From TrEMBL:
InterPro entries: CcO_II (IPR045187), CcO_II-like_C (IPR002429), COX_ARM (IPR010514), Cupredoxin (IPR008972), CuRO_UO_II (IPR034227), Cyt_c_oxidase_su2_TM_dom (IPR011759), Cyt_c_oxidase_su2_TM_sf (IPR036257), Cyt_o_ubiquinol_oxidase_su2 (IPR006333). It is found in: Cell membrane. Its main location: membrane. It comes from Ancylobacter tetraedralis. The keyword Transmembrane applies. Residues 129-241 form the Cytochrome oxidase subunit II copper A binding domain. The keyword Hydrolase does not apply. This is Ubiquinol oxidase polypeptide II. The chain crosses the membrane at residues 39-65, 86-106. One of its GO terms (molecular function) is copper ion binding. It is a multi-pass membrane protein. Keywords: Cell membrane, Electron transport, Lipoprotein, Membrane, Oxidoreductase, Palmitate, Respiratory chain, Signal, Transmembrane, Transmembrane helix, Transport.
Length: 398
């Protein structure tokens, strides 16, 4: 058997492995993904204009100026060529300029926050078409999709009508993930307490797969979902099927759903709490928790000084496993701080015994009593439980 045939046989396993590849990124069904595909292909071709000649010339020079080729030109004193310098510097510079222009245009035209102005290359978005809003929550380890307009929700099942713009509002419940549907658009990160957005459109019916492209723990490998682009009649039937489900997505059901689980089957919810996504985003799904937006509004007006510790502690990385624990804090928060006038009328004398002289042990934990002071000019006092200061009693709960 010849050496050439042995080389071909050796390449057969590689060919068999590549035959199973799905080049979905290069065969998208959505206009945004198609534009991203074109950007990738053009950028690759521009870079190959340098890479291929350099690799070819490297092999050519090694062969031409080999030691056994005594007829090759030998110029040990050669040091400069204006023509060669012009080629070496001008060609890469032109390619960099082209890549820079493509990157600048693609960054703005394909900005995920930018509303779509076209369905496809030759079809603008009709003036009377409203985008389909889909609220996406990355859970451990599953995807929750909320359709506020249709009043339904699904787990690991995403559907959208063909040729209608889709506006995704994306967040996460705990750790960072990445929302990615290769046939539809590029990867967008999902982060807790933050909202990202993605505008996309599907131009033809498709049944494909979406997944998380950012490692997020033990169940990451099974964190995928089904994506279908359907015609209007099929999408309406899909919505009606979801509305026949027995479950409803209330806040209590969500708190159970967000607990870590792997390889979760498709679930549907016939009704939703319309305030749920906003509560997830602001880390206040659990009853009695202050929303992050309310806290920011308080901070914008000057804050609550040390009393804000009671507010921030329960919100820190609001994972289900921290709730009700020492690290998670109790479900309480300070709703207001009294004025000096209110404080002067609310103070009462303490019935507690004076502490020993020098008993100034530091306060440990949020809301614990302050150490008593034994000094002639200071009388131990206590605040009523309704006062909103970090004094002898825990701040009022709400």
């Amino acid at each position: 058997m010849s050496l050439r045939r042995l080389h071909l046989i050796a390449l057969l396993p590689l060919a068999a492995a590549l035959s199973g590849c799905n080049f979905v990124v290069l065969a998208p069904t959505g206009d945004v993904a198609a534009q991203q595909r074109d950007l990738l292909v053009v950028s690759t071709l521009l870079m190959l204009l340098i890479i291929i000649p350099v690799m070819a010339l490297t092999a050519f020079f090694a062969w031409k100026y080999r030691a056994s080729n005594t007829t090759a030109r030998y110029e040990p004193e050669w040091s400069h060529s204006t023509q060669m310098e012009l080629v070496i510097w001008s060609a890469p510079l032109l390619i960099i300029i082209c890549l820079g222009a493509l990157t600048w245009m693609g960054t703005h035209l394909l900005d995920p926050w930018r509303p779509l102005d076209r369905i496809s290359a030759d079809q603008p978005v009709p003036a009377d078409v409203k985008p389909l809003d889909v609220q996406v929550v990355a859970l451990d380890w599953k995807w929750l999709f909320i359709y506020p307009e249709q009043g339904i929700a699904t787990v690991n099942d995403l559907a959208a009508p063909v040729d209608r713009p889709i506006r995704f509002h994306i967040t996460a419940s705990s750790v960072m993930n990445a929302f990615y549907v290769p046939t539809l658009a590029g990867m967008i990160y999902a982060m807790p307490a933050m909202r990202t957005e993605l505008n996309a459109v599907a131009n033809s019916p498709v049944d494909s797969r979406g997944f998380s492209s950012n490692y997020s723990g033990a169940g990451f490998s099974g964190m995928s979902f089904r994506f279908r682009a359907l015609d209007d009649a099929a999408f309406a039937a899909w919505v009606n099927e979801a509305r026949t489900a027995e479950s409803q997505l209330t806040r209590a059901n969500y708190l159970e759903l967000e607990k870590p689980s792997q390889n979760v089957p498709v679930q549907r919810f016939a009704a939703i709490d319309p305030t749920l996504f906003d509560a997830i985003l602001n880390l206040c799904v659990e009853p009695g928790k202050m929303c992050m937006s309310d806290m920011m509004a308080i901070d914008a007006k000057g804050g609550q000084d040390i009393a804000s510790v009671t507010n921030t502690l329960p919100l820190t990385y609001d994972k289900h496993s921290r709730r009700g624990t020492v690290l998670g804090g109790q479900a309480n928060y300070v709703v207001g701080i009294c004025t000096p006038e209110d404080l002067s009328t609310a103070l009462t004398l303490s019935a507690a015994k004076p502490a020993r002289s020098g008993d100034l042990a530091p306060v440990q934990g949020a809301g614990l009593p302050l150490p008593a002071l034994n000094a002639p000019s200071l009388t131990p006092i206590r605040l009523p439980s309704s006062a909103a200061l970090p004094g002898p009693r825990r701040p009022s709960n709400s």
